[in-house]
């Protein structure tokens, strides 16, 4: 008989697993429900980046601070380990004094972030119930981290093998990545190339084909054993924090995302950690969100508005400015964090931005369904986020 206090966690993504690890280490009976048979099924073995520019503390320190260790592929890339191209295809190098990001792998592969977190969860005593899709939480405390529910931005890409050396390449050009960017990440003979879009999704294939042509024109890279993949993320202009303080929402399910560029992993982990802490300490999750996440979250929406109004000449200008800097991280960090002007722009951005969330899954009344975050009769598509 387990006499530890039970907490239900829905979803074994970075958010859910971080919450579960934190709770289990504090002596709770953390039970994770995951609809798939293993972690990372949403992903494809593609490389992603744990960004290292938005906080003063290094991202490795961030992981340590929230009680996680690095037992997964996590390789640092500094500014001079790669380059950028603007719309005129001029090659641009930037300098950083510390890693710009840490490359990680997503999916169910041996070295993925997802497998690493799963191993840490199991070591901490978390029980994971695989293949169980939870649609309602009738009683007890729960944390819901079920990932995105709508495509507010999409990515289409390719994973492949290559003999190219480790590198990152970023592209800013609305002709291949409308209001977003394309990227190449190469690590140890494996590569991910993708183009992201914030609008005009119906021409996804066209943008992807053009982006691939630009890749082959700008980087001398061999491609073997290629496999296409796609994905999406969602953004809300205000997160959905909790329902009756009993069910807490975390990660992309709550709308936590970097609205500027979609770097949502740290948001997912931090919100998972804070939700767990609020259960452990009895502090309000909303208060923890306001103290630790709100200003950066809001600034990211302000930045999205600014970025969406830059267009190609603006991208060229910014990239040229970045080449002149000794270290691009401090100015990037300044832009990622709040200021008086960003607070004003946030107000404009909040009115301008609308999530595409139309939740077709919920048709219940009086329900505790994980999608019914606003209780009785509220339908997600009717909620003014
Ligand atoms: C192509 C692509 C590239 C990206 N690149 C980056 C990047 O470079 N850097 C970055 O920081 N972020 C990146 N992101 C975003 C990042 O991956 C997400 O923000 C992050 O994974 C969100 O974590 P999460 O825990 O909220 O949700 P998820 O990772 O989506 O996990 C949710 C889990 O819940 C499970 N689930 C869903 N519903 C139920 C249910 N009802 N019952 C049980 N289980 C359920 C799912 O199967 C899944 O395992 C990228 C996203 C995409 C699509």
Give structural notes.
By secondary structure, the chain is an alpha/beta fold. The protein is built from ten helices and 16 strands. It folds into two domains: 6-79 and 107-150 and 235-375, FAD/NAD(P)-binding domain; 153-231, D-Amino Acid Oxidase, Chain A, domain 2. It has helices at residues 14-25, 59-65, 113-124, 204-218, 265-281, 285-292, 294-308, 311-323, 329-336, 340-352, and strands at 6-10, 29-34, 47-51, 75-77, 82-85, 91-92, 101-105, 127-130, 142-144, 153-161, 167-171, 182-187, 190-197, 224-233, 242-243, 247-249. The strands form three sheets. Strands 6-5-11-12-13-10-14 form a seven-stranded mixed sheet. A six-stranded mixed sheet has the order 8-2-1-9-16-15, with helices on one face. The longest helix is centred in the C-terminal third of the chain and has 17 residues, at 265-281. The structure holds flavin-adenine dinucleotide. The site of flavin-adenine dinucleotide has 36 residues, from helix 1, strand 2, strand 3, strand 14 and helix 5.
SS-derived structural category: alpha/beta
Shape: globular
What is the correct CATH architecture of the largest domain? 3-Layer(bba) Sandwich
Beta-strand segment tally:
16
Can you tell me the CATH class of the largest domain? Alpha Beta
The largest sheet, given as strand count, sense and whether it forms a barrel, is: 7 strands, mixed
Q: H/E series, N to C? A: EHEEHEEEEHEEEEEEHEEEHHHHHH
**What number of domains?**
2
CATH superfamily of the largest domain: FAD/NAD(P)-binding domain
Share in β-strands: 15-25%
CATH topology title of the largest domain: FAD/NAD(P)-binding domain
Mean pLDDT: 91
Unreliable sequence segments: 360-385
Strand order of the largest sheet: 6-5-11-12-13-10-14
Count of helical regions? 10
Rg over CA atoms: 20 Å
Bound molecules: flavin-adenine dinucleotide
Distance between the termini: 43 Å
